[in-house]
């Protein structure tokens, strides 16, 4: 068990510094920040009356947080410990027992997520509005020290964050999640969970303590406590909205997975595999003969069945797919879950293989094995699959039956099966796409020596990228390729669009407000971009129509609604040079162009 505890501890440490933790870091940092100044209540003297007249959010030498009026040291701010403790306890408890409790009570699968979002909003309102904060502190009012009451609200904040905490899942977290989903709670699983939680807590606590240190030492924090509390509360509410609408996913997808090498070295080592595999039975143990990411095809036994599926998506009439019916075809099974950033980053490659090789005998099946309860909702999965461009069959493995059949322990994980139904290759995590595509092509040629395969998707992408218009941000500081009237920062300005726009250049017409994050359309707004690519996409937000023209002809009208979302402006069969123009309604915000 000691080895299992060490693996859990190191796995937690790696998880706590991964890109997936970034959305909660600002809140954890501010959790130890400025508090409202607390003063002792001596008899009313001339000095005390003078103290009462002091501006809000400032201290005299006697009432600074570091010292009480009677010379004794003020209570130490322990909110960083409280918020991290709440996060770790909440995450650990509900990861292990959340599914069981929700099922027993007959509650919606995503109830915990909604509770976490509501709690985060309430804490944010409490920082902005003192009456709300006093309401949140009432459960701790029996405890006489006011400082303990503050720590209680910080603990409640940690509980809410724990419900929203979606770390990148490696083998350790996968083992914990699967055990919790099945209700198989053993001493080994509890030890693994506690050690993982402790490992996660250490970096988060260091970050929270750093926030406390800054708040105590920087004069601006101490003299503007009230304003900073309002800013912290606003940030929490904004974070809750961003999490609710999955805005944070786009940020995480854009970051490299810089912890993957360390995670594989620790969690996917021979020792870790032996320890974590011991938590399950020996079913389909032949799959262990397939080394992760091997350069050549192996024979790893018959492909296990796809069992225990709650629902199928993207199949005729929602009918299930039996692997036995796919004999003669090459099958790629991809284990994924929609909130997993690593999975989201791998999906474009899988979608490209599906487009390129489906007619050559490749069948791709996505097995959606949920990491959290809210990912079991079929409506949530269908909505996110559509947004992520997943149009191949998806099996909702809500009970993790198929996950167990394949002895899987990673999101994402790919299992390549030949035409005879034998598993020939396994790839855990991101990367290795060129290698996997080579093996797909080899198996397709083995299944049908006469097949005419298209060029590799990676090669086609490389050929196109040489001349393709680069990604362009609509930012007053980062924009490139702009021509026309000089941009005016953060002020509605009327622009004149030139008659000729060269390749890889863009220009504005009508009224626009050029900001750092996005450009906001005003009256008669137009934007034209001459590009070379097959596909043109633009991130837009707001509410209203956007008319799209290509070479002066109207091709479509988009209906923009809500948070920033990627919209397709052009989707041609081949790359070409053309000018795309948008005419958005006033108030629409445009963020960045991407080209494919």
Q: Calculate the mean pLDDT score and round it.
A: 77
SS-based structural class? alpha+beta
Number of helices: 19
The rounded Rg comes to 28 Å
Shape: flat
Could you tell me how far the N terminus lies from the C terminus, measured between alpha carbons in angstroms?
A: 50 Å
Biggest beta-sheet profile: 7 strands, antiparallel
| Approximate helicity band | 40-55%
- Point out poorly predicted stretches: 37-70, 143-149, 460-465
Strand content: 15-25%
- Give the number of DSSP strands: 13
Structure description:
By secondary structure, the chain is an alpha+beta fold. The chain contains 19 helices and 13 strands. The strands form two sheets. Strands 7, 8, 9, 10, 11, 12 and 13 form a seven-stranded antiparallel beta sheet that branches. Helix 1 (2-15) runs antiparallel to helix 13, helix 2 (25-31) packs across helix 9 and helix 4 (79-105) runs antiparallel to helix 9 (187-217). The protein is flat and about 65 Å long. The model is unreliable at 37-70, 143-149 and 460-465 (pLDDT under 50).
For this entry, give a set of tags.
alpha+beta; 6-stranded mixed beta sheet; 7-stranded antiparallel beta sheet; 596 residues; 42% helix; flat
Gist of the model:
By secondary structure, the chain is of the alpha+beta class. It has 19 helices and 13 strands.
Write the layout of secondary structure elements.
Elements lengths: L1 H14 L9 H7 L14 H7 L26 H27 L5 H18 L1 H8 L8 H19 L6 H12 L4 H31 L1 H5 L1 H20 L2 H7 L6 H8 L2 H8 L34 E2 L16 E7 L4 H17 L4 E7 L9 H10 L6 E3 L4 H5 L7 E5 L5 E6 L4 H15 L9 H11 L4 E2 L19 E3 L9 E10 L4 E3 L4 E25 L2 E32 L4 E7 L1
Helix pairs in contact: 1-9, 1-13, 2-9, 4-7, 4-8, 4-9, 5-6, 5-7, 5-11, 8-9
């Amino acid at each position: 068990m000691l080895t299992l505890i060490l693996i859990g501890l190191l796995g937690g440490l790696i998880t706590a510094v991964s890109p997936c933790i970034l959305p909660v870091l600002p809140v954890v940092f501010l959790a130890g920040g400025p508090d409202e100044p607390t003063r002792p209540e001596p008899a009313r003297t001339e000095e005390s009356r003078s103290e009462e007249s002091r501006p809000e959010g400032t201290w005299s030498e006697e009432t600074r947080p570091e010292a009480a009026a009677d010379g004794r040291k003020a209570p130490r701010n322990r909110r960083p410990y409280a918020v991290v403790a709440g996060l770790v306890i909440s995450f650990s408890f509900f990861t292990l027992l959340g599914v069981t409790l929700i099922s027993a009570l007959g509650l919606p699968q995503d109830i915990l997520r909604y509770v976490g979002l509501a709690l985060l909003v309430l804490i944010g309102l409490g920082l902005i509005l003192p009456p709300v904060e006093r309401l949140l502190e009432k459960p701790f009012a029996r405890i006489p020290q006011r400082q303990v009451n503050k720590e209680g609200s910080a603990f409640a904040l940690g509980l809410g964050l724990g419900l929203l905490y979606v770390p990148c899942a490696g083998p350790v977290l996968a083992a914990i999640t699967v055990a919790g989903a099945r209700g198989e709670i053993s001493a080994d699983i509890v030890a693994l969970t506690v050690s993982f939680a402790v490992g996660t807590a250490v970096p988060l606590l260091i970050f929270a303590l750093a926030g406390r240190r800054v708040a105590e030492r920087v004069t601006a924090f101490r003299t503007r406590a009230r304003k900073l509390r309002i800013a912290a509360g606003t940030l929490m509410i904004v974070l809750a909205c961003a999490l609710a609408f999955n805005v944070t996913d786009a940020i995480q997808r854009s970051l490299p997975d810089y912890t993957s090498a360390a995670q594989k070295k620790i969690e996917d080592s021979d020792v870790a595999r032996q320890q974590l595999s011991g938590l399950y039975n020996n079913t389909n143990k032949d799959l262990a003969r397939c080394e992760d990411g091997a350069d050549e095809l192996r024979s790893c036994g018959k492909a296990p069945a796809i069992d225990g599926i709650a629902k199928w998506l993207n199949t005729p009439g929602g009918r299930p797919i039996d692997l036995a019916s796919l004999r003669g075809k090459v099958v790629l099974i991809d284990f994924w879950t929609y909130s997993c950033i690593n999975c989201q980053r791998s999906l474009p490659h899988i979608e490209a293989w599906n487009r390129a090789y489906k007619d050559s005998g490749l069948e791709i099946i996505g097995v959606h094995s949920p990491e959290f309860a809210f990912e079991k909702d079929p409506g949530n999965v269908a909505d996110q699959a559509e947004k992520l461009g997943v149009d191949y069959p998806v099996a909702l493995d809500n009970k993790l039956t198929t996950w167990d059949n394949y002895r899987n322990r990673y999101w994402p994980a790919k299992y390549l099966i030949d035409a005879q139904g034998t598993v020939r290759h396994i790839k855990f995590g991101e990367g290795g796409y060129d290698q996997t595509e080579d093996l797909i092509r080899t198996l397709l040629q083995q299944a049908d020596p006469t097949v005419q395969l298209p060029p590799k998707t990676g090669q086609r992408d490389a050929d196109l990228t040489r001349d393709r218009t680069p990604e362009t941000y609509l930012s007053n500081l980062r924009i490139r390729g702009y021509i026309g009237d000089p941009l005016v920062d953060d002020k509605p300005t009327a622009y004149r669009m030139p008659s000729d726009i060269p390749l890889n250049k863009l220009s504005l017409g009508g009224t626009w407000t050029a900001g750092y994050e996005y450009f906001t359309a005003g009256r008669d707004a137009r934007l034209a971009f001459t590009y070379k690519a097959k596909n043109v996409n633009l991130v837009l937000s707001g509410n209203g129509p956007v008319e799209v023209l290509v070479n002066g002809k109207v091709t479509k009208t988009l209906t923009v609604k809500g948070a920033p979302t990627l919209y397709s402006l052009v989707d041609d069969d081949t790359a070409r040079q053309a000018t795309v123009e948008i005419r958005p309604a006033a108030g629409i915000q445009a963020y960045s162009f991407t080209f494919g």
